[in-house]
Write a structure and sequence with these properties.
Layout: E1 3-4, H1 8-11, H2 15-22, E2 26-30, E3 36-47, E4 74-79, E5 83-89, E6 98-106, H3 115-118, H4 128-134, H5 139-142, E7 155-160, E8 169-172, E9 186-189
Antiparallel strand pairs: 1-7, 2-3, 2-7, 3-6, 3-9, 4-5, 5-6, 8-9
The protein binds a DNA duplex (12 and 12 nucleotides) through strand 4, strand 5 and helix 4.
Length: 199
DNA sequence: CTCACGATTGGA
DNA sequence: CCAATCGTGAGC
């Protein structure tokens, strides 16, 4: 499949524009060994200014600082003291916003994934915590990294020549939040078995 | 400085 | 339904 670099201006749009457009894009994880795993993004959520569920809602802090920087960088945070979540920073510098990458359809299963999880191979990255666990993504190593492919980073984005048709995408409300519950900023690929949860 | 809680997950 | 597990940030 033909792939190409994501134009930086494209990610510089508001997160609720970028989030659905990221569906069908590829996330590539390259390890220190040089080996890669690749997944198609099948589920995303947008977080933006004015949105009470957004980590950047109140003000800039040490944790959310990357969200206020330029688009096209990783924002990785720890949730519930045990899982990491990966976001793509969006919009213009100074605007605290990002897209949470909630699920990937992986091309191959990493060797270290335990037997139990191989029982449902298309579910090994079906959820934001699982995705980071499976691809060894964490805050210390990956928060603030660029997602531009040509820099040879540990993580990057590519997008296919043929974007997903809009009729293949479902839009609904976001998962696991207690504020901003009615904002319909979650998108997923209709019927894809790697989607964390249908609604 | 304290402490309640969270953009989750797996197991009872 | 509930525990695991700990960084964050609001509030005193």
């Amino acid at each position: 499949m033909a792939e190409s670099v994501i134009p930086s201006a494209w990610l510089g749009q508001p997160s609720e524009v970028v989030a659905p457009a990221l569906l069908g894009c590829h996330l590539v994880r390259q390890y220190a060994s040089g080996h890669c795993h690749r997944g198609v993004i099948v589920e995303t959520e947008a977080y933006a200014p004015g949105d009470p569920a957004c980590h950047a809602y109140r003000r800039q802090t040490a944790r959310n600082a990357v969200m206020f920087g330029p688009a096209g960088y990783c924002y990785v945070y720890l949730i519930y003291g045990m899982y990491f979540c990966l976001n793509v920073v969006t919009d213009q510098s100074g605007v605290g916003s990002a897209v949470l990458v909630r699920a990937l359809a992986l091309d191959t299963i990493p060797d270290w994934v335990p037997e139990k999880k191989r029982r449902y191979p298309h579910r090994v990255a079906a959820g934001p915590g699982l995705l980071c666990q499976t691809l060894h993504i964490n805050r210390d190593e990956h928060n603030g990294l660029s997602l531009q492919p040509q820099t040879g980073e540990a993580i990057w984005l590519e997008f296919p020549q043929d974007p997903l048709p809009s009729n293949a995408i479902t839009q609904t409300t976001r998962i696991g939040i207690t504020r901003g519950v009615d904002i319909p900023w979650r998108w997923y690929v209709k019927g894809d078995p790697a989607v964390s949860r249908f609604k």
